[in-house]
Amino acid sequence: EVQLQASGGGLVQAGGSLRLSCAASGFTFADYAFTWFRQAPGKEREGVASISASDGMTVYSTSVKGRFTISRDNAKNTVDLRMTGLKPEDTAVYYCAAMRGYGLGWGFTFDYWGQGTQVTVSS
Questions:
Q1: Per-residue confidence at 54, pLDDT binned at 50, 70, 90?
Q2: 83-117 in b/e burial notation, b at 16+ Cβ within 10 A?
């Protein structure tokens, strides 16, 4: 069974921090790139951070660069998103998605999606 479970969301004040985690199972974790997406009410889904399948290279959207850090642990089959300096505009449901191959970014068709975890940033 393929499973992608996102967790770690919650309510935080502006300027605070959260760490999201994506736990994967049922497929060869090391062969997949991972991307964190988010979707806020009334807005389209957007990619925020991506990490490659092999060498761990990362890319970020301009809105989160310098504040968010994506990482992966191939031994634990997990992908984390460390978020600092949170702003109210970061409020969204955050989704973890997996794609076969090296490619970075969010313009691809993803093979697997997690259920999402809610992040709410108060002002």
A1: confident
A2: beebeeebbbbbbbbbbbeeebebebebebebebb
* pLDDT category of residue 10 using cuts at 50, 70 and 90: very high
Neighbours of 72 (CB within 10 A): 22
Compute the distance between CA of residue 106 and CA of residue 103 in angstroms, rounded to an integer. Answer: 9
For residue 42, pLDDT over 90 is answered with yes
d(CA 20, CA 119): 9
Cα distance between residue 18 and residue 11, in whole Å: 9
Kindly state the tokens that stand for 30: 């090391």
Whether residue 89 is predicted with pLDDT greater than 80 in this model: the reply is: yes
